[in-house]
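Aim 2 progress. For ATPase associated with various cellular activities, AAA_3, the working sequence is reproduced below.
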Amino acid sequence: MTPPESDTTPALMERLLYEVKRVVVGQDRFLERVLVALLAQGHLLVEGVPGLAKTLTVKTLARAIRGSFKRIQFTPDLVPSDLVGTRIYNQKTGEFSTSLGPVFANLLLADEINRAPAKVQSALLEVMQERQVTIAGETHRVPEPFVVMATQNPIETEGTYPLPEAQVDRFMMKVLVDYPSEEEEFVIAQRVTGPAVEIDPVADTFALAALQRQCREVYVDPALIQYAVKLVSATRTPARHDLADLGRLITYGASPRATIGMIEGARALALLAGRRYALPEDVAGMVADVMRHRLVLSYEALAEGVSADAIVQRVMKKIAPPDKPLAGGRFDGSVGA
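Predicted structure tokens for this construct:
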């Protein structure tokens, strides 16, 4: 189901959002970040207490794009083959056959990823990076598009295995999901206890793949790339950017994946807005979600209760975005033009 030529990208994404919001109440920022991840082909790490529609959002979105959806509940007794699949011996034929695991889906929800041991976490993160699985010497590619949304529960630490920093870095963004407002919760109660809502598919995975290719073609001015580089560099060598007091709060700064994530995310935000070029606010809008999980804070920062978000805000106040990076007017059209 390829969208008709008259449909612009914003119109298609608006229809997609409309279908999802027929089921999911509120969580506008979270929904936007899920769409950004889809367009930018990145993965999401979501932190929020249970019951905030994380599973419902991904499942509904999968229906709206005619994609496959799988959910894995991570537990301490999980083994890697439970995710990627294994070889099964058939006694009747005397041959082995391959049984593929639940990671072979367009949208994969890894629920409470920090409840599984390191081997299982590594197996998932390898699939996220390589987008393929090797079983008994045979390589199997996961379907395209492929987006993983992993959740963490911030209120429970007993029986959890925190993700190592090097593995967390594989996630493009870490999004914080908060409680709904009283008005939103009222609507949630009405909707959940009322008749079930049927989702109408508005696109398919082929249309989404075309949008992903279009996203990679969005123009990003070199000045914006330099802006992202400076923001990331300030977390590694704060003194060079007149932020010497942050040096004692940061053990390790963000990796180059943060710079890449900002640029790819800015492209997706621009595409959602109907533009073929990114603006400084697109890059700035991605900074917190892209960097908060990549900063390794020192014991001093933890003791003083300084959060990664607070440090990111300090960096953003110090490093100003470029003035008029598109002053030449080279890209003044819209996506649907």
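The chain has two domains: 9-207, 217-318. This observation will guide construct design in the next reporting period.
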